[in-house]
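PRD15 protein (Sinosuthora webbiana), 212 aa
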Amino acid sequence: CEDCGKSLIGECKLHGPLIRAKDRVIPSRARLTLPHYLTLRVLELRAGNQQILGVFAKKVIQKRTQFGPYVGQLSTKLTCYDESRLVLQVLKDGGKYFLDTPNEDCGNWMMFVRLARNQEEQTLVAYQHCGEVYFTTVKPIEPHTELKVWYAADYAKFMEASAVFIKEESDVSPLPPVAKEPVDPWICSSCGSTFATFALLESHQCIHKDRV
């Protein structure tokens, strides 16, 4: 204590505790990469102050606007899985890898985009190009509208998932009729859990192998 000149364990009983000054909170890498015409909104607050976030437009975003590439760590299995986000994989040097984002300092803002549950709310398609994943708008996005994504047709085949498609204008190529919502056809033979894509099942089975 500089007032009484004593070295103490804990606070000084005579002069009290020190006034603590906290560092300024710095946004994560992912939040800093958010384009100026997009914003993050807290949609839900879960136990442990876990925030469920969504990406919303602040102004009109034109159709055929491309975002990306998606920034994540290449991994042979997922370490972070969120059922409201897309699972993404890419081909690199002949191998198939997950684009994993264990925390906000390892990715960019695209990690916050939630998946579309049906064709009405889908505004983006995800696809692979030159070993990277990009999102492109499939229709104009109005202000205050949430950006939601699903796989493009070819990428859905690569991910072994169902396809959600937009049939809005005549210049959109028609796709075969499919279910509006992703299905859960992949079942783990070890524990019976179901998964929306084969990639998720594959990552889940790695956990059983690790335990063995």
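The domain at 27-157 is CATH 2.170.270.10 (Beta-clip-like). Residues 166-184 have pLDDT under 50 and may be disordered. ok done for today
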